[in-house]
Amino acid sequence: MKARGQVFSTDFIVGMLVFLFILSLSVIVSRQAFLQADSFEQYSELRDAASAAASALVVSSGQPSNWEKLPSINDINSVGLAEERNVLSSEKLQRFSDLNSSNYSDLKQLLGLGKFDFFFSVELLQSSQQLYSAGMLPDSNATVVSASRLALLGSDEILVKLEVFD
């Protein structure tokens, strides 16, 4: 008697099912890892942009240093709110808030935020009373990174908050 091989034996089918299960599982796991890495990269980019912009606002007077007196935003190279390091100018804060209503996208560029949106606020440290604000509030499903800095405005201690989001 001659023995003939079977093409689809039970062992072959079980082996193929195990192989397909492992292959599917590895595709799902690698996709999840890719999504997490992409999310972390986006968060890092937001964090770096928020930190750099908040520091520049509190430490720098801007370029030119009298930018708040210029009639056109096109003459401003960078925005800074400081009279001196960590001491803010109320005139610069007011001009910054005023520019927000008509030149929001230009203001984003001057802050170095590019594709990100922002909300900026200044509040008294003791009472949390908001003195100035600019930008737009993030919606509930946006990824938001907040950078806060302490400073002085006249003799008042203030908290400068910059929220950057996508």
Automatic annotation (TrEMBL):
This is Uncharacterized protein. The chain crosses the membrane at residues 12-34. The keyword Transmembrane helix applies. It comes from Candidatus Iainarchaeum sp. Keywords: Membrane, Transmembrane, Transmembrane helix.
